[in-house]
Amino acid sequence: MAFFTVCLMAFLSSQQLIKAEAFLQSDPMTMTTSAILSQVSGQNPLVGIGTMPATCNDTCRINTLHRIFQLLTTSLTNAGFSTSQFGVLVGDYNECLNSMGNDCHAKAHCTNLLGGYKCTCWAGYRDANTNLKSGRSCQEVNECTSGTHHCDNNANCQNTIGGHTCTCKTGYTGDGTWCSDINECSSASICSGKAGSVCKNTDGSYLCECPTGYIQQTTGGVSSCVDRNECSDGSANCPSASTCANLPGSYKCDCPTGLYHSGATCADINECVGGNVCTAANTQCLNTQGSYSCGCTTGFV
């Protein structure tokens, strides 16, 4: 046992050596430490190692840990132990068989390696402490807050254990990784609750708007669009000299007789242009503001 320990010291790191010594000096099949030590170092010394002192150095440096465990297994077999009793020693000790054999985090995968093992955080988890080896401090990644999710801008991201889900927001359709606007106005009855209204689609929603010249009015809990009286609510834009006349959905501006609506004013109509409105002989048309008169031509009274 002492000779084998010297070989291990030449091959293993200090951390591996501690684990190897602890394992070799205990029996996973419930045999006591003293029993296995007496069998190995007493009546039946290590065969294949103890008989090669001159080549121990070369063997430890050139061969892998797999070879060392094979030699130990051969020695134990020659000492009278069955392979099944020490099957865990054949080739390698699997530290991943139980949590006592490794220091992987509870949210990490343990992968057995020849002479050791590695720890890898589960999908959706990451190493929280970079000062520790990988897989020793695994923390859940919140993809929704870290910005590593794949949800559409119009979707809600819901964090889950080891992952996340994407669900399109109200007014959108899709699988969550892509979402497109729903055109609610494609349904003819969408605005049926507001008589006379017109549906206007918006991004993620819609509006039931009254047509131009109408306003919403609710009577007895029922909404409807009614004509807007622009003449009485002050929204009409008529010239000061004109008279506002309300129309269904609109209005008009009536200028006084002899004037016409010209932009923001009521302009005079020149009745004398475009034809002789004065039919009597030897008369001529004289235009006045908002009217006209017929007078005698020069030389006549």
TrEMBL record:
UniProt signal peptide: 1-20
Keywords of this entry: Disulfide bond, EGF-like domain, Glycoprotein, Repeat, Signal
One of the Pfam families matching this protein, by short name: EGF_3
GO MF annotation terms: calcium ion binding
Highest taxon, organism lineage: Eukaryota
Record has Repeat as a keyword: yes
GO cellular component, one term: extracellular region
Domain EGF-like: 92-131, 140-180, 181-220, 227-267
PANTHER family, alphabetized: FIBRILLIN-1, PA14 DOMAIN-CONTAINING PROTEIN
Protein name, per record: EGF-like domain-containing protein
Organism: Ciona savignyi (Pacific transparent sea squirt)
Lineage of the organism: Eukaryota, Metazoa, Chordata, Tunicata, Ascidiacea
